[in-house]
Amino acid sequence: MTDVNTFSHPILITGGAGFLGSHMVALCLEKRIDLVVVDNLSNSDLSNLQTLEKHFNVTIPFFNIDIRDQDKLKDFFNEHRFSAVIHFAGLKSVAESVANPDLYHDNNVVGSQNVIDCIKAQGIKNLIFSSSATVYGDPQYLPIDEDHPVQPYNPYGETKAQVEELFIQDEYFKTASVKLLRYFNPVGSYKCIIGEKPNGMPNNLMPYILGVARGEYDFLNIYGDDYETDDGTGVRDYIHVTDLMEAHWSALMDDVIGCEIYNVGCGKGFSVKEMVKAFEEVNQVKIPYQIQPRRDGDIATCYAAVDKIKNHLNWSAKLNLESMCRDAWSVNS
Length: 333
Ligand code: NAD
Ligand code: WQD
Known about the structure:
single chain; alpha/beta; two-stranded parallel sheet; 11 helices; binds nicotinamide-adenine-dinucleotide; binds UDP-4-deoxy-4-formamido-beta-L-arabinopyranose; isomerase; NAD(P)-bd_dom_sf; NAD(P)-bd_dom; UDP-glucose 4-epimerase
């Protein structure tokens, strides 16, 4: 177990202005851990960090750097030392990755290789990478455990699988503590003060429900009610972002050497209709919906086996669907 007092330098949080990265910043501030944020603001702005600065009465060291810019990144690592790196920076839209696979390769894979080169040059040994359940593709069995074949079916998922391999294949990381975290479907907000702020029309379910609740959209499009699930709509493993960050904390504190992959989910699946019902009940807001054809590339059901992370890192999700729906809405209403 790592003792936080042995962190002689700050933690670097790449992508720290984004949805999940800013929640990690919040957790570190709560735990009084020094941190530095790098982000190029390509899918975020400074508002979550500014909210956290006010809330915690601190200044968050922020560097506007594109991780594709090798020279700038090297200069930055030459000027700062870090005890650990949590690498969130990346593009995450499946649809955009299909339209522009080269951009996704360049941003997510080449950018991550640059981060890895700098990590190695400085000799940093405590690392977390944001991977995704997307790497599993269409599940061959449920719940999906970490041994399930990796078979991503879109360029975004391919970039996540490729970056995992960059860590796994590199001899250097056999002497470091590396956690490759495969997130399922994160939702919610940190203590209702910061949340998810997608640019433009949301692709994901919860941000779209929030848009309907705010009156920006007349109804939710439910993509398919003819799946082989109890009510015909798609089933996913939603996880509260607060729980997800606690999983990062457990990963950061674990000093076992080597590269380990962990699913991070609740281990339970909820359908789109169950999400809508829970949201309506807990927030007393009506979410009208219309059934549409299935969305290209969607799968029926996906939920995680979570025994490995429970057994190795002593982490499991605590917050239920009602908390996810309430906290997502309270910061967005
Ligand atoms: P986000 O878009 O809100 O945050 C990502 C951040 O990275 C943004 O602030 C963006 O500006 C920054 N970024 C992107 N490319 C960059 C670059 N080249 N240089 C510097 N900064 C760059 O997304 P998020 O939901 O917070 O996701 C964080 C990470 O977790 C991503 O890697 C994503 O693929 C992964 N992930 C997210 C989910 C999810 O549903 N939110 C699920 C699984 C995995
Ligand atoms: C959930 C369910 C939809 C929107 C994606 C990425 C994955 C990960 C999380 C980053 C499905 C249905 C959705 C809507 C709907 N991100 N839906 N109407 O597809 O499980 O995963 O985000 O790594 O990589 O693929 O999440 O929230 O888009 O969809 O009916 O407007 O909601 O069909 O059943 P998904 P999602």
